[in-house]
Amino acid sequence: MILYPAIDLKDGNCVRLYKGEMEQATVFNDNPAAQALAFVEAGCEWLHLVDLNGAFAGEPVNGAAVDAILEQTKVPAQLGGGIRDMATIERWLNKGLARVILGTVAVEDPTLVRDAARAFPGQVAIGLDARNGMVATRGWAEETDINVTDLARQFEDAGVAALIYTDINRDGAMQGPNVEATAALARAVSIPVIASGGVSSLADLRALKDTGAPLDGAISGRALYDGAIDLKEALDLLKA
Predict the structure, then answer these.
(1) DSSP per-residue codes, 30-64
(2) What domain count does the chain have?
(3) At 142, is the pLDDT very low, low, confident or very high (cuts 50, 70, 90)?
(4) Can you tell me which residues form the catalytic site (predicted)?
(5) Distance CA 151, CA 171 (A)
(6) Given 8, 51, 171, 216, the catalytic residue
(7) Is the dihedral of CA 122, 204, 33, 236 positive or negative?
(8) How many C-beta neighbours within 10 Å does residue 163 have?
């Protein structure tokens, strides 16, 4: 399993939200590129970036911060938030992103996801953000009546690189991930699944690993900034 340290970008800063609420943002670093470099120097082999403003605006907002991260680090990075057309997908991948994450358009324009996955093999992931098992879109502000697993199965044959499953009620709350739901999703589809939301201890990472489900990795944010997870121990655990 891969550990993906999360760098959530709001107004040019590296922040963490509490349960997806933009008003409840804690700034952890006003230099996202320096934070990214610190993660890489500590041994992280991937970066998970989110343009929070972009998720609400429907277009990239924190582009300068992402550019700086890509310039200063040499590990693959994936980015989500406000990526909703082919031109934006192409622009980001041309700038050096390893993977774009499409969330809202997976619900609103699934054809775009399929076209992008076909045009850029291995470089398109889907962000599945859910409250109580139902998908939420547009920066988690809009709820749908679409079941997470049902939506995931629609893309089984699309060539999508990964599914990033976030339980919104766990995100930033330091209460542990939804291990059962994450493992169930990983078993229900053939697309690699990345766990997100609430990963706040080594025990959480161990619990995800011990499910035996074919998980690609886990994303953690606040716990890495707060020191609740020792980064070296986490990397060793997931590599073992």
Answers:
(1) S-HHHHHHHHHHTT---EEEEEHHHHHHTS-S-HH
(2) 1
(3) confident
(4) 8, 129
(5) 21
(6) 8
(7) negative
(8) 24
**Residue 172: pLDDT band with limits 50, 70, 90:** low
CA–CA separation, 32 and 8 (whole Å): 9
CA separation, residue 87 to residues 117, 140, 148 (Å):
14, 23, 27
Our answer to whether residue 129 is catalytic in this structure is yes
From the list 51, 129, 171, 216, the catalytic residue is: 129
Report the alpha-carbon distance of residue 202 to residue 208 in Å, rounded.
10
Residue 8 annotated among the catalytic residues of the structure: yes
**First vs last Cα of the chain: how many Å apart?**
9
The CATH code of the domain that includes 150 is 3.20.20.70
Domain that holds residue 179: 2-239
pTM: 0.94
**Dist. CA 121–CA 157, nearest whole Å:** 12
CA 77 to chain centre: 10
150 vs 146: CA distance, rounded Å: 7
